[in-house]
Protein backbone atom coordinates (compact mmCIF):
# COMPACT_ATOMS: atom_id res chain seq x y z
CA UNK A 1 0.00 0.00 0.00
CA UNK A 2 1.48 3.32 -1.04
CA UNK A 3 1.61 5.88 1.71
CA UNK A 4 2.97 8.80 -0.28
CA UNK A 5 -0.41 10.11 -1.34
CA UNK A 6 0.38 9.42 -5.00
CA UNK A 7 -2.34 8.09 -7.27
CA UNK A 8 -2.71 4.34 -7.04
CA UNK A 9 -4.86 3.90 -10.09
CA UNK A 10 -5.96 6.19 -12.88
CA UNK A 11 -8.92 5.07 -14.93
CA UNK A 12 -10.23 7.86 -17.11
CA UNK A 13 -11.26 10.95 -15.17
CA UNK A 14 -11.13 9.35 -11.69
CA UNK A 15 -8.06 9.05 -9.47
CA UNK A 16 -7.89 6.86 -6.38
CA UNK A 17 -5.35 8.01 -3.82
CA UNK A 18 -4.38 6.88 -0.34
CA UNK A 19 -4.67 9.20 2.60
CA UNK A 20 -0.96 9.11 3.41
CA UNK A 21 1.13 7.50 6.11
CA UNK A 22 0.78 8.59 9.71
CA UNK A 23 3.43 6.75 11.63
CA UNK A 24 2.08 3.28 10.94
CA UNK A 25 -1.54 4.15 11.69
CA UNK A 26 -3.86 3.31 8.83
CA UNK A 27 -6.48 5.90 7.96
CA UNK A 28 -9.94 4.54 7.34
CA UNK A 29 -10.76 6.47 4.18
CA UNK A 30 -9.40 7.57 0.87
CA UNK A 31 -10.39 10.41 -1.44
CA UNK A 32 -11.81 10.01 -4.91
CA UNK A 33 -11.43 13.03 -7.14
CA UNK A 34 -13.41 12.97 -10.35
CA UNK A 35 -13.49 15.49 -13.13
CA UNK A 36 -16.32 16.03 -15.59
CA UNK A 37 -13.90 16.35 -18.53
CA UNK A 38 -12.34 13.13 -19.84
CA UNK A 39 -9.34 14.98 -21.28
CA UNK A 40 -8.49 16.96 -18.15
CA UNK A 41 -5.76 16.08 -15.70
CA UNK A 42 -7.45 14.07 -12.94
CA UNK A 43 -4.74 14.84 -10.39
CA UNK A 44 -5.41 18.60 -10.72
CA UNK A 45 -9.11 19.21 -11.34
CA UNK A 46 -10.10 22.72 -12.30
CA UNK A 47 -12.43 24.60 -9.97
CA UNK A 48 -16.12 23.95 -10.44
CA UNK A 49 -15.57 20.74 -12.40
CA UNK A 50 -14.72 18.34 -9.57
CA UNK A 51 -16.35 16.37 -6.81
CA UNK A 52 -14.67 14.94 -3.74
CA UNK A 53 -16.23 11.73 -2.49
CA UNK A 54 -15.10 10.01 0.71
CA UNK A 55 -14.83 6.24 0.48
CA UNK A 56 -14.96 4.45 3.83
CA UNK A 57 -13.61 1.19 5.06
CA UNK A 58 -16.54 -1.32 5.08
CA UNK A 59 -16.32 -1.80 8.85
CA UNK A 60 -16.29 1.96 9.41
CA UNK A 61 -19.25 2.35 7.04
CA UNK A 62 -21.14 -0.33 8.97
CA UNK A 63 -20.39 1.44 12.26
CA UNK A 64 -21.52 4.80 10.85
CA UNK A 65 -24.71 3.23 9.46
CA UNK A 66 -25.47 1.67 12.85
CA UNK A 67 -24.89 5.02 14.59
CA UNK A 68 -27.18 6.77 12.09
CA UNK A 69 -29.86 4.11 12.61
CA UNK A 70 -29.67 4.66 16.38
CA UNK A 71 -30.17 8.41 15.84
CA UNK A 72 -33.17 7.73 13.58
CA UNK A 73 -34.71 5.35 16.15
CA UNK A 74 -34.12 7.90 18.94
CA UNK A 75 -35.83 10.66 16.93
CA UNK A 76 -38.77 8.35 16.16
CA UNK A 77 -39.05 7.46 19.85
CA UNK A 78 -39.10 11.15 20.83
CA UNK A 79 -41.72 11.86 18.18
CA UNK A 80 -43.92 9.04 19.50
CA UNK A 81 -43.53 10.34 23.07
CA UNK A 82 -44.65 13.81 21.95
CA UNK A 83 -47.68 12.29 20.22
CA UNK A 84 -48.60 10.31 23.35
CA UNK A 85 -48.18 13.40 25.52
CA UNK A 86 -50.46 15.41 23.21
CA UNK A 87 -53.13 12.69 23.33
CA UNK A 88 -52.85 12.47 27.12
CA UNK A 89 -53.13 16.25 27.42
CA UNK A 90 -56.26 16.23 25.25
CA UNK A 91 -57.93 13.63 27.46
CA UNK A 92 -56.94 15.57 30.59
CA UNK A 93 -58.46 18.78 29.21
CA UNK A 94 -61.64 16.88 28.28
CA UNK A 95 -61.91 15.41 31.79
CA UNK A 96 -61.30 18.73 33.50
CA UNK A 97 -63.82 20.49 31.27
CA UNK A 98 -66.47 17.86 31.92
CA UNK A 99 -65.75 18.02 35.67
CA UNK A 100 -66.18 21.80 35.67
CA UNK A 101 -69.42 21.55 33.67
CA UNK A 102 -70.85 18.91 36.04
CA UNK A 103 -69.78 21.03 39.01
CA UNK A 104 -71.62 24.03 37.61
CA UNK A 105 -74.81 21.94 37.13
CA UNK A 106 -74.79 19.91 40.37
CA UNK A 107 -72.79 22.03 42.79
CA UNK A 108 -70.53 19.07 43.65
CA UNK A 109 -66.78 19.74 43.49
CA UNK A 110 -64.55 17.57 41.31
CA UNK A 111 -63.21 15.54 44.30
CA UNK A 112 -66.79 14.95 45.49
CA UNK A 113 -67.71 13.78 41.98
CA UNK A 114 -64.77 11.32 41.96
CA UNK A 115 -65.79 9.97 45.38
CA UNK A 116 -69.37 9.55 44.10
CA UNK A 117 -68.15 7.63 41.02
CA UNK A 118 -65.94 5.37 43.19
CA UNK A 119 -68.88 4.66 45.55
CA UNK A 120 -71.10 3.89 42.54
CA UNK A 121 -68.51 1.48 41.13
CA UNK A 122 -68.16 -0.26 44.52
CA UNK A 123 -71.94 -0.63 44.79
CA UNK A 124 -72.17 -2.13 41.30
CA UNK A 125 -69.33 -4.58 41.99
CA UNK A 126 -70.77 -5.66 45.34
CA UNK A 127 -74.22 -6.13 43.74
CA UNK A 128 -72.72 -8.24 40.95
CA UNK A 129 -70.64 -10.40 43.29
CA UNK A 130 -73.46 -10.91 45.84
CA UNK A 131 -75.33 -13.18 43.41
CA UNK A 132 -72.49 -15.71 43.34
TrEMBL record:
InterPro entries per UniProt: PSII_Assembly/Photoprotect-Rel (IPR053091)
SUPFAM superfamilies membership: Chlorophyll a-b binding protein
Region of interest (Disordered), residue spans: 1-27
PANTHER family noted in UniProt: OS02G0610700 PROTEIN (PTHR37752:SF1)
Record protein name field: Uncharacterized protein
Amino acid sequence: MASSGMPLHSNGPATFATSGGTGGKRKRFSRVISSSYAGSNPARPSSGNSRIVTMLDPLEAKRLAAAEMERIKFRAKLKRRREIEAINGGWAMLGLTSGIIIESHTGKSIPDQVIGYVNLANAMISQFTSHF
